[in-house]
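Continuing the batch. This is chain 6 of the set; chains 1 through 5 are on the previous pages. Same settings as before, nothing changed between runs. Recording input and output for traceability.
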Amino acid sequence: MKKFGKLMLSTMLACSLFGCTQKTGGAKDGEFSASEKGFGGDIKVTLKVSGGKVEDVTIDASKETPDKGGAAAEQLAKEIKEKQSPNVDAVSGSTISSEAIIKAAKSAFEQAGLKVEETAATKGEDETVDTDVLVVGMGASGTLAALTASEAGAKVIGVEATDVLGGFGNAAQGMFAIGTDLQKERYGDHMQTNEEYWYEFMQDHNSQLGNGSLIRRFVSEAKNTVAYCMDKGVKFYLSEMPQQIAHFNTDVIYHRWGGAEPFKHFAEQLEKDGVEVKYNTIAKELITDKDGNVVGAICEKQDGGKLTVNAKSVIVATGSFAANQELMKETLGDTVYNNAMVIKGNQLPGIEMMWDKGAAKGELLTMNHGVVTKGAGEETVSQLSLNTPILWVNSQGQRFMNEDLLKDTVEFSSAVVAQGGLAYTIFDQTTADRWTDTTQPNTGSWVHYWDRFGIKDENGKPTIYHAPIDKDTWNADWKALEDANAGKICQTLDEVAEFIGCDKETLKETIAKYNTFVKNGSDTEFFKDPQDLTYTVENGPFYVTCGHSGVLGALGGVNTTDKLEVLTDDYKIIKGLYATGNNVSGVSVAAYQNVEGVGLGFSLTSGRLAG
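Output for chain 6:
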């Protein structure tokens, strides 16, 4: 898995504030900071205040795109200082980052005792437009839906809550497809690029509870989606091998983007086709006629004005429910939701709009993917300790899985979800010495998800590996982990148990049993591969890392036909209403499919087919 921080996606838009700041008798000198979610992660605004005046404004937008959010941060820092107020205008093209900066700046001003007077923004005008097809949500799925609908001769309008085309697709690395020209060049007619093989694989994973006709169509059509995107200028390539160790014995099905800028090409085509995309606009409610057919949507513009779109058909591609806290807690449970690292996305009423008009509530799932630390950034040491088959224990100090599961990030993450979304790795000083021995080659000599194999580029060269680690990096990373309470170096096993919060004797018994398995080369408890029984836990100090399940988003919401037509509880088609991408239930059942690239693959393919 790529560094998890790179998968962070956009949050809900807020309205800009307008007004002025007044110095008050309560103003305080010093530095005052506040953070808010931007497009790529947290943005931190720090004010330096002296004598009731803002002397300096610094904005840490290091997780934002440099030429977008980064540039906006630089501009807004100057404007906030010049105006002595957080009430500045958002930077065009960087609305999400700008709104986060403005909101954080307001909080910092309030901490400093600087009063911010707010005035109501002028509400924009209401308007009504007519179109053939309305696409709600211009992420990966909605973008392709709009393109194919326009190419079929329809007049198309897209509404997008952010000011960015592509949504989750901008962070995705590639898509599933079988039977592509790229695969035929490499494998010929090999079984694993056969539609029957992958249809049965997915349905077996679903215990035959999936939407069979939809999955069958997806498996068949994904290759045509690759060809379609390539015709638009998008570059794909097959890496030398699958991206996860669990899939090393299968053919490469993961079609990587190849370093291209896919949505730049798509945007050019949308403009060429005359598709009007209304950014910073949120669909609030579907419009139906007297027969219950969907004939448009009521939307809210950034300026507060109402946009009514009358349409012959509506495609809802809003990316499911990850930002809906109530639904996420319903799906994960409160404990897992609080423990997991959840990418929340935008708070959009897409599936709720469809439910309100009679759509059946499909199965709701989360996209469990990988295990990460919380609050400590992206340390190399935690990437290593959380992605190596060393000893893992739960909150009771007991083993709970075959640690080889980490070779598939979906199964690995789900195993930790089953333990409340939080588990711990433990290794000793002997292992630490091995991982910091820089006399060995970077590819390492032990089986490890990142260090021996790495992620391979189009030329078969490793692009990511984490061991060995130099001592300076090792020490700095562990300090960051301890400062964030995301890990701890313990002198004794009693101290390890205290950090985890488990019974000391239970933990010691677990470790003693595990050490026996390693020395004997046989795991009689969870049956780990003997070649991965490498690391005993014997010689202190002992290193503990907290691992939180990664949740990349949510899946499901409504049931559809294989043509993406939305269904009611009694499986009747709601005329004029289509759903795509993560809004659709039935591709993954009970758990996210452990098929590389299935998320983006289905999003793009379902969008292309719905359009």
